[in-house]
Design goal:
By secondary structure, the protein is an alpha+beta fold. The protein is 47% helix and 13% strand.
Length: 394
Amino acid sequence: NIRQVLRQFPYICKSGFEIHHMKTRQMHRIGEETGISQNTEIRKLLKEWYSVRKRNLPWRNTNDAYDTLLSEFILQQTRIEQGTPYFLRIKKAFPSIVSLAGASEEEVLHYWQGLGYYSRARNLHATARIITEKYGGVIPSDFNELKRLKGIGEYTAAAIASIAYGKPHPLMDGNVLRVISRLFAVDIPVDTTKGKKHIRNLLNGIFDKDDPGHFNEAMMDFGALQCMPANPDCPSCPFGSICVSRTEGKVPEFPVKTPPKPVKIRYFNYLAVRTSDCSAILKKRTGKDIWQGLYEFPLAETEEKVAEEMLNQTDFWTKFFPGLKIEQLGGSIRKTRKLTHQLLHISFTLAETSVQAENIHPPYIVVSPEKIAEKPFPVVISGFLNTMNKKIKP
């Protein structure tokens, strides 16, 4: 009997092993089914919410891929409220990708003026030219093809592919990161590679492959209108007990982010000088810095604030125009401009010179009063020109 038991022992163990794993597989299957059920419920609730709360936006009233591309370039670093007038303005000036490609960079920057992050405008213009020359003016529908274009990363490529062409690519913008991080109480910083990868996996679980465009737009609207960064409307949230951070009373703790970078402080001292015929002396900004491709007055950037008495001394400006007679028209005007990770302290010193325009040499140029409005400027300089119009122009 003992020998029989010993001979059967391997089979008994094997049987027990299989039973154990069969139960384990069954438990995993039940867990998966529960997850699938919850994901389906989230999709259903989101779709119902979107049918009622959907925002009426001009680029949603058409299936034109150009509208999607243009709006996504504008909204990369801009709120919808601010970006919508620019969308309408640029679309009116350049109604097609081909007409945008045919414009000069300065024209595009001029229409973009005031929107900030001007590299977007330059990339948009470059991409329009590539699409016109390489694709015959037809915006690609393939995700990987889109990613090869200037200024188009994974997010913008997914937006164009899903919204304009119905391709199954989920979007992950700030709204989506916030919604998913709260919904599942993600304690990994969302602005890290690890955090984004984790959230993408969760997003893939609830993503609607059958209706990707509307799902992506619904998620973005939900984050903007319901699950806002501050004071989210939790009482009327359709997800109720599904939202982990809400059930745990920790909504304000999400999304988790890494500490912000220190703000860089810069001091810009401008010489707003005009020539004897009332033209303005300007210089185009180049290099990898803010406002690339825009125009400004002669600039002296300093490491600390310069006293007004110093600015009013002619010697301070001789580096720009050696030997030129410059006459101040009054004290300096000071402004502050806050950019991402930068704080600019800006001063404008009004001045004029009796030197003729032909004696001004590169990199400076002389722009007549009637041509100044055609040049693209940073917002702070454009505002200065508007408020000081009588002193800058005749």
